[in-house]
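ping. complex inputs:
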Amino acid sequence: MIQFLSYLVNGISLGSVYAIIALGYSMVYGIAKMLNFAHGDVIMIGAFICFSATQYLGVPALVGVLLSVAVCTVLGITIERLAYKPLRSATSLAVLITAIGMSWLLQNIALLIWGANPKSFKSVIDLGTLVLFGGQLRITSETIVTVLANIIIMIALTQFTSKTKMGKAMRAVSEDRGAAELMGINVNATISMTFAIGSGLAAIAGVLLCSAYPVLMPTTGAMPGIKAFTAAVFGGIGSIPGALVGGILLGVIEILGKAYVSTELGDALVFAVLIVVLLVKPTGLLGKKIHEKV
Amino acid sequence: MKKILAIALALVLMATASLAMADAIKVGVIGPMTGPYAVYGLAVQYGAQIAADEINAQGGDIQFEILAADDQGDGELGVNAYNDLLDKGVNIMLSTVTSGSCMAVSTVANEERVFMLTPSGSADAITVGKDNIYRVCFKDSAQGLASAQYIVDNKLATKVGVIYNNALDYSIGIYNSFKAKAAELGLEIVAEAAFSDDTNADFSVQIAKMQEAGAELVFLPIYYTPASLILAQCASVGYAPVFFGVDGMDGILTLEGFDASLAEGVMLLTPFSADADDELTRNFVATYQAQHGEIPNQFAADAYDGIYALKAAVELAGVTADTAPEDACDPMIAAMQQITIEGLTGTMHWGADGEVDKTPTAVVIKDGVYVGAK
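pong. complex structure:
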């Protein structure tokens, strides 16, 4: 029983990392209606910025995190401006391919700047480990902080999109881009803002990812990015609470699958879930059902 | 005036460059220079270049020019890179770096009679049935056998767990031979857990399985990147068995930002240690660090030794820059079996099967440095 609880905690720990990446993924998709496959690589850049700031410049961890949020926000806006904005009226396939190209570009830029050698990321969260049941169950502070960060970000994002003017503009753009434009909403500025927030979140996700799993290299963001995408689809892409639920569930499925089925099938199970969800409930667990007008 | 000077200078440079290169034997180095395995490919390229520079600086009859090509660790790209290098006039190959690509390229090189020495392709099958394929590193099964033997001989543990990467030929090869040897020696493997690739970050389940089964020693036939995660995650759950690695573990101490205290007491069998105190290693490490700002790993050392082995063999075989690859092949095979190299990774000589004969040394990590184990 304790063993099961321990697996569950590990699953939540892994899932909370997926969830925090999925939040950014899902938000950008929900509003800009595009799959930003470079999201995982923005995460990697964020982690590298924090690593460089704390390791080479010797700044405190919190400053490193803020710096990486700032850099990634600017990076997100730049990527959107340079690569995605010119394709605003292009087919979604063209945008998707561009996003994949951007992902490779970011990985190879990181390879040039930081080299191929992996780095060991020093956790920014150093609060020790919560030990329960006489040492049988351990919950690291990274897990607790990541789960808390998820909840805070989820609440902040829902409040932002429902209460603020910019947030309402985002929802309007998401609903109907043409109509929003007619209502006087600056669609380009709104989408840029979406990318800014999404990329800022990516920086936080990168730092938390590497704090929990401390290896950093140019390909670090790729796999978690794809898993987070799966989580976002699982929870209902575009839905903010859905990303959180999807992420946590996916982490738990992966760990329990490894524990009780086979350690080799963890990844296979994750992607099997994606296929089943797409077959059975294409809108995901909490996704909105959209009626197509014929 | 400036213009004339510039043209004159350019001409002189071109003349000297072509003079220097006229007699240089072209050595093709294929490896992953970009992508997730770039760390290994670049290490090999840099290590080979350092050896070639040293040889060229001595100004002897044999001069080397290193031509590197990227295969991203992929067999198909490896064969493309191989063809490309032959078009550029390569005489012999110091290729390829990763086992997967090496399997593909060595097959083609065997058919086309191009002599190939792999610095680090360690899968057993690479040299099997291919008389012109040699290697500098140990083959995988040799490491598994030596590890099991060492654990039993030194009574390190009676209950052993293994965590291995089932997506990596290297890891599976060592694991299988370790398992067979352990069974033969009566060493009990109480738990074995695989993970699926290098980007896998969560090892909590694998570690829990080791802990549950009461493994006193965990054998890690994997590279140091996932190993560093395993060590960190074991520490966070308070599990402290003896960790035993192979040559892929080498490099863990140079992992930037890695807390060396996590690796305290880790044992590994490796032919190269950057902390060794002999003059050859010290010079090599210093040069490498000056050029690339990093401590060289075992791949760089294998490549360095590989170039010296090629030099000795080329000398004996009488191969020059004008020898076509297919004409160089048979003399090189004969020469490889006669030479002895005192290199960074030990004293080496080669058998007709292409396998190297050298001794792995066991080291244990104490206070962040390698110490010879007994």
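The radius of gyration of chain A is 19 Å.
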